[in-house]
Amino acid sequence: MDTIANDTPALTIQQHILQEQRRFPGASGEFSFLLSGITLAAKQIQAKVRRAGLTDILGNQDTSNVHGEVQQKLDIYSNDVLSSALACRESVGILASEENEHPMIMPHKSPIAKYAVVFDPLDGSSNIDVNVSVGTTFSIFRRPEGADFDDPTRWVLQPGRRQIAAGYVVYGSSTVMVYTVGNGVHGFTLDPAVGAFVLSHENIRMPQQGKYYSVNEAYRDNFPDAFIEYLEELRTGKLNHPYASRYIGSMVADFHRTLLRGGVFMYPPTKDFASGKLRLLYEANPIAIIAEQAGGAATDGRQRILDIQPETIHQRTPLIVGSQVEMERLFELFKTQVS
Ligand code: P6P
To answer: Going by CA atoms, what residue is nearest to atom 3 of ligand 1?
Structure first.
């Protein structure tokens, strides 16, 4: 009897998703078909990101998004690719994107649509022209009981603890997709030779403590006092050892390092962004559930990110996310300062 060659390729993300799919009774493959739309879009986006300097895809689109931020051509492309890949999944009823002011109602308005997908198609895109890592984030919710297509925001204005799946793609020295369906966190590296994401980081667990903190210290003087005190503790070694600072200015890349090495990433309230700069729905929520699933924690300084009830699609939130030791110290400090 022939035996399978021992160089059998590693598990692909499609095979992994099918395995994970078994956790969703009655999902009948539609959930994995939905996730395959995201992996397809990620491959298309990464192909453009990898060639950004070679084709006329760099630079500004001379348009601005809902936040008044100048849109990069790759932002628009990535948004179109993700929206198209998901629009042809009948199980998806509503999409919400950083690039669109309002949720997108899928034309099919299928009665069997049971998911909403929220995403930031290309986070950190202002870094593209200088070849800094960028990322895509996504978050998947079930259609709330009784929600219909007349009220699309109801599908997406759900607390992050109700995400049934979430993840990100980081377009760095390699392209890595990290996701969770509530059963741990798994990372897949794109093998350009075969065009498949293959399992490279099975069941990621954040180290208990790291050695980096990650924050834009240029805004330090405007941080609330509790943040300044906390950073001072990290910097001066009061938490077991002195920390080094690492800040890329691209959330997905800064968080990916924090996930794998431990430590803490934060975007506190600042003078320009009293509620922090990062958006709750498609930046903080996917990052927070990944962090918790990997043994870390994420807060806005007052409450668990995943417990925040969103009021608007593009609302911002302060975000502190990190490994166990750093976050336990933060909760102790903030209990006295921020309550
Ligand atoms: P600042 C990118 O524009 C982004 O939304 C995140 O990816 C990143 O963490 C943050 O803004 C950086 O903001 O104010 O430090 O440049």
So the answer is: 124
